[in-house]
Specification:
2 copies of one chain form a homodimer.
Chain A: H1 3-6, E1 38-40, H2 42-48, E2 52-57, H3 67-81, E3 85-89, H4 93-105, E4 108-114, H5 119-127, E5 131-135, H6 139-150, E6 156-157, H7 165-170, H8 172-180, E7 188-192, H9 197-211, E8 221-227, H10 232-237, H11 265-275, E9 278-282, H12 284-298, H13 304-318, E10 327-332
Parallel strand pairs in A: 2-10, 3-4, 3-6, 4-5, 7-8, 7-10, 8-9
Antiparallel strand pairs in A: 1-2
Helix pairs in contact in A: 3-4, 4-5, 8-9, 12-13
């Protein structure tokens, strides 16, 4: 895999074939995921007083979120291993992505979502042939229900960081960032963090690109953005600031950020510290006004998670964690169109 | 523009720069539209008894539909001409696309939609900063309202085929089809037809590629698919079959197919005849079961328009208009996720 050879590769995350799992090409389950646009957003940059701002728009993936990458890799491996049924507890986007790739692979999908999940992901999963169970409670209750039902069912559980392949898919966001920026990483990456596997995956990707000599040694500052009401990474990063008790709970509507005890939290904290980055929480009001501001400025309807990342730029700048003259990429991990409940 | 030079071009419809309008690159308004996946769908092919079936999935465009292509081209030209305000009457997707590109260009957008339009497009257009007016009635009533308000407002009207550039954007679907199939066009193209500018644009694209020697002289059979309740092309194509009176009306829920008097209808009919193709109408029940069947088979949540195209394969095969051994591409012009009302 060289810079030039990549030019002739397929227009999807599978262009980085050598650095991805799956033994035989015929087991790759693809719907054209990855190679999402990385766009300069000068109007939004001006509003924030920044010089060079980019958005990586993951909404243009199959099932409209970055979860497609992880599920493409994980379901491909499930196909390789001959697994017949997959399950996942999910707040939404991971369920729709699993439904899509499982259907494409001819594998049964059992998806457990909280009853108050966004309707878009429930309907999409059902239309993609998955068996969807709505559970009264939180995502942890969904996980408990899976545990109960797995006893009598031969299901493989694709929960975040419970298996090694979803993160292999997600790391392709890092490969693409490097390739799309002509192999010079940005100065800062601002990433909305729920389970955090996207951030962990990207960090792994940069290390791999360094190991094969495709990029230099300089790593970007990594910033995690969470929503007030459920910001465990922010709380642990700023151990001195034990302020908002509510941050220990589940109390926010940005479903992709509603992970009170991220399994990968020690790894995430290590990356944030090593990179010279940090963690910041934003309010729901900040998210909503960020979505409207960015939409009118740049024509992209951010998901609440992407809105959180954009909103966080203001406090990061104020805290001097980022400066006006550096190149900054923030991630829109999903599509606003899937969260109509926020706007009705 | 040669086959090899294209390899190094941007991963969007603007890779076909020489065959697109816009004088200076700095006027191009882009959000990463085009280069959508063209996927082999063997599970669905098997269900239909077909040998080689492909879907071109336009849902992965900005604002989740092929309308992004036309608006990227038209808004770029509006920027070049220094136009300050744009307007369009729309059943939905064209409005969201205009809102996105106008925002990106810093141009005001005035969008007129029927009051019963899908909520997704209304909310998306609003979040992208457009001024949305809901009109009691049909898209023709929206057009009439624009005519009234334009007298006292300096708006440029981007109605279908009212200006030449949207179709220039849409023709890139034809360029991509050729490039993605290694410069050999399929035997048949099955396309959901409302205004028909996508079909007209593709035909133009094939002629252009022939003129510069990138493809051979063989053209595909072109098929228009419409929904019963509003199928003027089908009615005119089969002049002998003056059966369903309701086909003269607006009576179908597939909003992208609700165009009772397509401006381009003589051109469309000419293309269908010249190519050896045809026109066919499907029912709402057929659309709904096509969406569920294709979703479970291939993991893509078709829009009703895409569902109509997939559903039509059955009657086309029965009528021997297509055969089991030819290569067939059908278009999914939008995203199922924008039509939640169909499934609630």
């Amino acid at each position: 895999m060289k810079r030039e050879t990549l030019l002739k590769r397929p227009n999807s995350m599978w262009r980085y074939r050598e650095l991805l799992p799956v033994k035989n090409d015929c087991d790759i389950v693809t719907l054209g995921e990855g190679m999402t646009p990385l766009l300069r957003v000068p109007n939004a940059a001006k509003r924030k007083g920044l010089g060079s701002l980019w958005v990586k728009n993951e909404a243009q993936n199959p099932t409209q979120s970055f979860k497609a990458r992880g599920m493409s890799a994980a379901v491909s491996m499930a196909k390789q291993f001959g697994i017949g049924a997959l399950t996942v507890p999910t707040a939404g986007n991971a369920g729709a992505a699993l439904a899509a790739y499982a259907a494409r692979a001819g594998i049964k999908a059992y998806i457990f979502m909280p009853r108050d999940s966004a309707r878009a992901n429930v309907i999409e999963s059902e239309q993609l042939g998955a068996c969807v169970t709505l559970v009264t409670g939180l995502i942890t209750d969904c996980a408990a229900e899976i545990k109960r039902q797995r006893i009598s069912n031969d299901w493989f559980d694709l929960s975040t960081l419970n298996e090694p392949y979803r993160i292999e898919g997600k790391k392709t966001m890092g490969f693409e960032l490097a390739e799309q920026l002509n192999w010079i990483l940005p100065s800062s990456i601002v990433y909305p963090t729920g389970g955090g596997s996207g951030l962990i995956g990207m960090w792994k990707a940069f290390r791999e690109l360094q190991a094969i000599g495709l990029i230099g040694p300089k790593m970007p500052k990594m910033f995690s953005v969470q929503a007030e009401g459920c910001a465990p990474i922010v709380r642990e990063f700023n151990v001195s600031v034990k302020s908002a008790d509510s941050q220990a709970g589940y109390n926010n509507r940005a479903s992709g950020l509603r992970v009170p005890v991220p399994l990968g939290s020690p790894i995430i904290l290590d990356i944030l510290k090593k990179s010279g980055g940090g963690a910041v929480a934003v309010t729901e009001e900040e998210i909503l006004s960020a979505i409207a501001e960015f939409g009118a400025a740049e024509g992209i309807f951010l998901a609440p998670e992407g809105g959180a990342a954009y909103a966080a730029l203001t406090s990061l700048l104020k805290a001097k964690a980022i400066s006006t003259d550096e190149s900054i990429v923030f991630f829109n991990t999903g599509a606003g169109i899937k969260y109509l409940e926020w706007f009705e």
